[in-house]
Amino acid sequence: MTRRVIQYSTGNVGRHALRMLIERPDFELVGVHARSPDKVGRDAAQLCGLAELTGVVATDDLDTLLALNADCVVYTSQAETRPKQALAEIAGFLRAGTNVVGSSFVWMVAPEQAGDWLRDPLAQACAEGNTTLYINGVDPGYSGDTLAYTALSLAERATSVTVQEICDYASYDDAEFTGVSFGFGIAPEHTPVMFLPGVLTSMWGVQVRSLARDLGVELDEVRERCEKWVTPEPIDCVMMHVEPGQVAAVRFAVEGLRDGEVVITMEHVNRLGPQTAPDWAYPPDGRFGVHRVVVTGSPGVEINTHLGGDAGGGTDHNEGGVIATAARVVNLIDAVCRAPSGILAAHDLRPLDHLTGVMR
Question: What is the DSSP letter of 301?
């Protein structure tokens, strides 16, 4: 069955999702949303680097897209900085009978743990439209659910599990959101939005709690920690220019404790260039990025995922990350369209659900 689909936004993730929707024979692209005036009115192919025009032009009119009655919308628009507007947009599609897959609203990666302010109106919209919602990505997402499940399935007994993203963001062209959120290129005294009290826990804590629930572990506490590293030398990279004395690397984590011991950790180590934060962890084998799960127990287990780089035919690791984020939700379109009404999490899905259309 060919699914009629809409791509909502054409940014770092969205342009790759759009290309996938155009190139795959199991989808018919019927609509594209763009906010930027220089994108509105342009053919979808032009917005994702394809030569052959599709005849589908981008619009900023939500009502026009709702009226298409598509089977599914791929929602990759930035939601975390505009939650009320994004909530209204996603709920509008769900109420209108269009299923939604997306990489935004990372709190919904573990929907049972998300706040009522977000989960309840989305669940109500699903009920009204008899539709289904699935939000996921690479991290938060894959590394803290699918990869963690795989590693833990190999253990006779686990005493702790650590999920890590260790990645050099220097080649990632996203200073406006990632750079600002992580506090790159600013004085260390400034507290970026990501490190305001409770923000890390709100984003990665949902996966800590969800994994604990999946494991039957009752946590006593969920806590967060963060560190900054200041460069002594100027740095010029794709992300931004960083002056001496400004932040060029961050390390943060959300930890779940049981009986006073850390048993579940979701940790990030992100830097701008391999010369930064030399005492912090690096990816193995000279790579620039890794998503890793380490299980201590019997036996110990470590699984490393590398996106792009040598694993991707020369694709930059950050480009590989956004391609993988897009694929993570595009590949679920058919499964979401077939699922009962409601909000899905990764633990509701079969492993094969994420493979639809991959080898074609």
Answer: E
- What is the rounded distance in angstroms from the CA atom of residue 65 to the CA atom of residue 77? 15
Question: Which position has the token pair 């806590």?
Answer: 223
If you classify domain 3-135+322-354 with CATH, what class do you get? alpha beta
Handedness of CA 174, 15, 43, 32 (dihedral sign): negative
d(CA 141, CA 99): 19
How far is the C-alpha of 200 from the C-alpha of 253, rounded, in Å? 8
Average pLDDT of span 93-104: 97
User: How confident is the model at residue 258, as a pLDDT?
Assistant: 98
Nearest alpha carbon to residue 70 among 96, 90, 47: 96
Nearest to 133 by CA among 218, 180, 74: 74
pLDDT in tens, 162-178: 999 999 999 999 999 99
Task: Name the residue with tokens 């900023």.
Answer: 60
- Global pTM? 0.94
Handedness of CA 225, 111, 352, 329 (dihedral sign): negative
DSSP string, 184-237: TTS-TTS--GGGSTTHHHHHHHHHHHHHHHHHT---SEEEEEEEEEE-SS-EE-
Q: Which residue has the tokens 């770092």?
A: 12
**Residue listed under structure tokens 């993730």:** 13
Would you state the structure tokens that stand for residue 260, as one six-digit string? 């006073």
Residue 114 one-letter amino acid: A
Number of H helices, E strands in the chain: 9, 15
Bridge-partner residues for 4, per DSSP? 28
Q: Show me where the domains of the chain are located.
A: 3-135+322-354, 146-306
